[in-house]
Amino acid sequence: MPDLQSMPVGWKSGVTRLSAREVPQEKRCPRGGDSPGCWLHWSTGTVQYKAPGDSGSVDWYLAAYPDRQVAGRAFENRKTAGASGAREVAMPRVGDESVAYAEPRAAYAEPSIVMTVRVGTVIAAMTYQDAEKNPDSAQVLLSLARVQAKRLQQAALGEVPTAAAG
User: Fold this and answer.
1) Does pLDDT of 116 surpass 90?
2) For 25-60, what is each residue's pLDDT tens digit?
3) What phi and psi, each to the nearest 5 degrees, are found at residue 116?
């Protein structure tokens, strides 16, 4: 998960503080498949950061899976679910695979852009909320997704993630 020091200058902690947890062994699905009531991902993390000048916020959700095949299947499921009622946004590929959607304004919320990235066995879903407050929100989200992908690659190589947004 990105920490505040890896965010661009001026960003602040949001409502959701940085947290991560492992799914208990007894709740994990076996590697060969899933069975009712089990979890395909083995660990998760969440955090929210607020952009400078009240120009929106980005919510992160990370899920780590036991292998690339399961992570790939989970990515495809997220991609299919994200397409429902949203418009795909053309963005360069980030990580092993990625997709972005613009979600329309709901009666209770501002429009948002969601980008989902898979790097190896980890999926990162990032949502830029209140996207209309920042006309560059898609570019900001892309920049943050690239940093997240770099951090995930560093972690996969056994390195301490040091990639940071400029």
Assistant:
1) yes
2) 888 877 656 566 677 888 999 999 999 888 889 999
3) -115, 130
Say what the pLDDT of residue 110 is.
74
DSSP 94-161: -SSEEEEEEEPPBTTB--EEEEEEEETTEEEEEEEESGGG-TTHHHHHHHHHHHHHHHHHHHHTTPPP
**C-alpha span between 59 and 148 (Å, rounded):** 12
Under 8 Å CB-to-CB from 146, ≥6 apart: which residues?
94
The whole-number pLDDT of residue 48 equals 96
From residue 136, alpha-carbon distances to 11, 81, 120, 153, 155 in Å are 15, 25, 28, 26, 29
12 three-class SS: strand
pLDDT at 139: 92
Residue with tokens 């900001």: 140
Specify the pTM.
0.88
Sequence-ordered strand ranges (E) for 34-77: 43-50, 57-64
Specify the amino acid at residue 155. Answer: A
Query: What distance in Å separates the CA atoms of residue 107 and residue 125, rounded to the nearest whole number?
Result: 23
